[in-house]
Amino acid sequence: MDRLAYGLAALAGIGATALGGYGMFGGVWTLRLAWLVPLGGLELTLDPLGGFFLALIGFTLVPASIYAMGSSGGERRDRFAYLVFVLSMCLVPLASNTMTFAITWELMSLASYFLVLHDRESKESIHAGWVYAVMTHAGLACLLAGMLLLGAWTGSPRFEDWRAAAPALSGTARDVAFVLLVLGFAGKAGVIPLHVWLPLAHPAAPSHVSALMSGVMIKMGVYGILRASLDWLGAGPAWWGVAVLLAGAASSVIGVLYALVDHDLKRLLAFHSIENIGIILLGIGSAMLYQQAGLEALALLGLAAALYHTVNHAAFKALLFLGAGAVVHATGTRNMEEMGGLIKRMPWTAVCFLVGSAAIAALPPLNGFVSEWLTFLVLFQNTRLDAPGLSLVFTLGIASLALTSGLAMACFVKAFGITFLALPRSDAAARAHEVPPTMRVAMAALAASCVALGVGPTLVVPALGSIAASVLGVTPPATVGDWLTLRVSGTFASLSTLAIAIALGLALLLPLVALPLVGASRRTRGYETWGCGRIVQTARMEYTATAFANPFKRVFDFFYRPAKRLDIEFHPESRFFVERIEYENPARSIFDDWLYRPALDLLRAGARAARTLQSGSANLYLAYILAALLLMLVLA
Amino acid sequence: MIAGFAVAIVQVLVVGVGAPLLVGVLRTLKARLVGRRGPSPWQPYADLRKLLAKEVVISPTTSWVFRATPYVLVATMLVTALIVPVAVASPPLAFAGNIILLMYIFMLGTFFLALAGLDAGSAFGGMGSSREVAVAALAEPTIIVAVFALALRAGTIDLGRVVEHFGREPWLAANPAHLLAFAAFFIVMLAETGRLPVDNPATHLELTMIHEAMVLEYSGRYLALVEWAGAMKLFLFMTLLANLFFPWGLTGPAGSAPVLLALLALAAKLAVLTSVVAVLETMVAKLRLFRVPELLAGSFALACLSLMAVILVR
Amino acid sequence: MFRQLRTALHAGIVTEPVARGAEIERIGERLAGEIARLFARSLAIRQVDAGSCNGCELEIAGLTGPHYDLERFGVHFVASPRHADCLLVTGPVTRNMAEALRRTWEATPDPKFVIAVGDCGRDGGIFRGSYAVVGGVADVVPVDAVISGCPPSPAALLAGILEAIGRRR
């Protein structure tokens, strides 16, 4: 019975992909039900950008639902919430007026809130749900404010009308609308510093839900930013693009820095989502700046790079979350320090997770590399803007993207290496078993898509280019190379991941063939790991995740501000012998300490001050009513 | 087509066969500089041949990742040999990639080697992996910014076209932006290939190892492949430095005579670079691990200066 | 930094030719023939201290210096036994180090051989018969050659190692 719900969701995913694909390649479809909801009615419109995001949702939904069918348990409440979540999320890219958007958005948030809260007993889940609920509704408040203002200024709640009327609005009006809308959408996307809910909510939810939340729900924030800035408001002043670009640079570096020192497997993946959103924003910010300067081809490239990374991130993040879910399911813990040796006990999961890790670390010839390469190219050509100040911003973006990808590789060496390799660090890990076939099929499908997206950019980029062209209102670019090579910006750069993949494959075979020919010895013997003659090897002697992250913690300690704690229990009879040492060196979040806590304290102080208004005396309340009435009569 | 195939074979042979010689010459030079006779420059070939005859001792703690890594390392180096301009400005696979792709292919090798270090479950391997990825990650911004500076001047990141552009540029060796980018890239080369002052390739103290710690568990033919890949990485980085920044002898019409000339020019440039590295390694001591980020930050500053010089001159 | 370079260049190459040192005592016949041929041009040595007083270690350390320069014969020291061809064992094997020595030997890939250094390595030397000592190295792992002395001079060590791999100069 529970499989039926997930099966329905998978079917919905297939339908969404088909409809989205239809929209991506130019099909149009509209649905108007003016009577269904007030203030404009239900209105759904399919256009290329909406179609792209719809197809993205569907493409991620299918493996996640198939995976969910394999995982046991889940109450009826969770399955119902999942269906509501999935269906409302599919409607968000189709919504074309304020009310429809608000309803579908809020349904999506509410349903995911219940899914985050699926383990009602644990304090961690409750806290995660609470923070998520507050942040998403604060974002909704900004969104509604922005949309209602735009609706009031342009005189219509429909997005089409905004597109037409926006150039006529005053600069300040557009700035206000931009700030409100982008703030609201950025909160959903998890951009620094509005990211605090992500690392709490994603680990708390079950893995197929985390895969969807990280893979597609935060992309709804990206979708919103694209709609708000490039679609409805059109080309704006340069500071819009600069703000988005800098937010992207900050998110990418800070996200990966927090991921490096985190040893909860799912929270690490959540921080990486923040990082990848940052990379997407780098592309969007560049596109906005190029569009404002009139460099159409580069704006197109920027948007295409951002869209490509959106798809790639959905693919490999969903894969990684499903893999992490498999690991958590098999070992019963999310803590990496208790895992190890899983590659021998869960070989298929390990291979899929390895493909996902290599993809997110942007290693050729996988998909993460292609979209990061495209983003680099977009950032590199900034001198055509002929503005040294902007060049500085772009250079900052380039440096942060480079640092991010290096640190991401380091982090995934840690994530894969500590979790899967060497000896198990706990009994639970030693008893782990491979997951059921449905879960494996889902992961394998996503891994295959990562490879396909990596070696097939020549097919993907033209499609994305035409979608980007429709958003920016420019003509689609001429051919971008042939089936083998991707040529960007004329002779600026070319790439052929297919050729590299084939070359790597052949080069891998070369030593295998050549070694016997040169007479290499084939003898192999097994003997324990070298331990300097130590008598036994246990898991206690392996490197830990904390130790692995230590160089980074020291290099970036100005950012982490670690709070070291060392407890030593000495033997009661002599201080020369130690019974127990406990070492903890957690990083402190500067956003919690410098932004949220002061803001919450201010709010609390303000609320305390306002409490004096509520004296409890009925006479005073009557006096308030009289004063308000007099004020309204005077003002009217 | 045939010419392209021939060039591919020539480049792979030059890189594959020449890399151990480069390492051997470096060792001999370092020995002579401290008053020792030192090994013969052909010593690495003898070492590799002996290793092929030894058996492989593998720990049962390891997995297929450990056994696959030597092949992945060699594969990445061989593919890179077809992209880097060794004998011609635009080698056969130049259309498939550019400098950014090169750096990420090297990261592919580092990724697998770091995993292999963790695989055996020894503390040394884990420590080596942790340090190696830290150095690689911190070197990335420098590389990309230096590449950006080069790309700005050449108008492209395609290696062949960059080489041709610089070949035509007069007063190349006197261009401050160029020299600053070269200095930044040189420091990154020392970091990525594990030379002093970042890492001592000849150390026996595990606590001071970065690259060597990850290969402690390899033996026999696997060790031969890993050592060969390490030599090829050094050769390729030095060739990049030599042929990208000073492409004299490389630009010219196609044909066998120009290829020979290019190889002779490369040999001369590599000889100079090797001497510089040998003298540097003899003079400086290894940096403490937590001072290496300062060195890399310094190289990043050089790359940024180079970039500023390019932007301001435009 | 430059001063060191100047001094070295000023002094020039100070490596001495191989002196005729003490003959090594051959215990096993494996060294003749195949093993010697395999390692004649390239030998990796892993030095194992099985409880020695460090007198032999100091002499061995002289081998890598400019005067004796082991590297010119293609011989070098390695850190991991998995990289090694030859175990150079010093010290009477103490009880605490016996198991460690045996594990080191097991971790070394074939073909390999063992050289026991010093009188202690031969049969326990001045510590022979002690309660803390197992005996010579041959009591723990198979030994192929012995270079005796207390301690053997670097010249003797060099001559011994070269003879073990069949090189005369």
Radius of gyration of chain B: 19 Å
Mean pLDDT of chain B: 90
Task: Report strand % of chain B.
Answer: under 5%
Q: Encode the helix/strand succession of chain C as letters.
A: HEHEHEEEHEHEEH
| Biggest beta sheet summary of chain C | 6 strands, mixed
- H/I helix tally of chain C: 6
Q: Give the N-terminus to C-terminus distance of chain C in angstroms.
A: 35 Å
Helix content of chain C: 25-40%
Task: Tell me the CATH topology of chain C.
Answer: Rossmann fold
- Can you give the mean pLDDT of chain C? 87
Which overall shape of chain C is indicated by the principal axes computed on the Cα atoms?
A: globular
SS elements, strand count of chain B? 1
Using CB atoms under 8 Å apart, which protein chain pair has the greatest interface? A-B, 85 and 85 residues
- What can be said about the biggest beta sheet of chain B? none
Structural class by secondary-structure content of chain B:
mainly alpha
How many beta-strand segments of chain C?
Answer: 8
How many helix segments of chain B? Answer: 11
- CATH top level label of chain C: Alpha Beta
Structural notes for this entry:
- The complex is a heterotrimer of chains A (636), B (314) and C (169).
- Chain A is mostly helical and 636 residues long.
- Chain A contains 24 helices and 7 strands.
- In chain A, strands 1-2 form a two-stranded antiparallel ribbon.
- In chain A, β3 and β4 form a beta hairpin.
- Chain A starts with a helix and ends with a helix.
- Chain B is mainly α and 314 residues long.
- The N and C termini of chain B lie far apart (39 Å).
- The termini of chain C are far apart.
- Chain C has a single domain, classed as Rossmann fold (3-Layer(aba) Sandwich).
- Chain C has 169 residues and is an alpha/beta fold.
- Helix content of chain C is 34%, strand content 18%.
- Chain C is globular, with a radius of gyration of 16 Å.
- In chain C, α3 links the parallel β2 and β3.
- In chain C, the strands form 2 sheets. In chain C, strands 1-8-6-4-2-3 form a 6-stranded mixed β-sheet, with helices on both faces. In chain C, strands 5-7 form a two-stranded antiparallel ribbon.
- At the A-B interface, α15, α16, β4, α20 and β5 of A face β1, α3, α4, α5 and α9 of B.
- β5 of chain A pairs parallel with β1 of chain B.
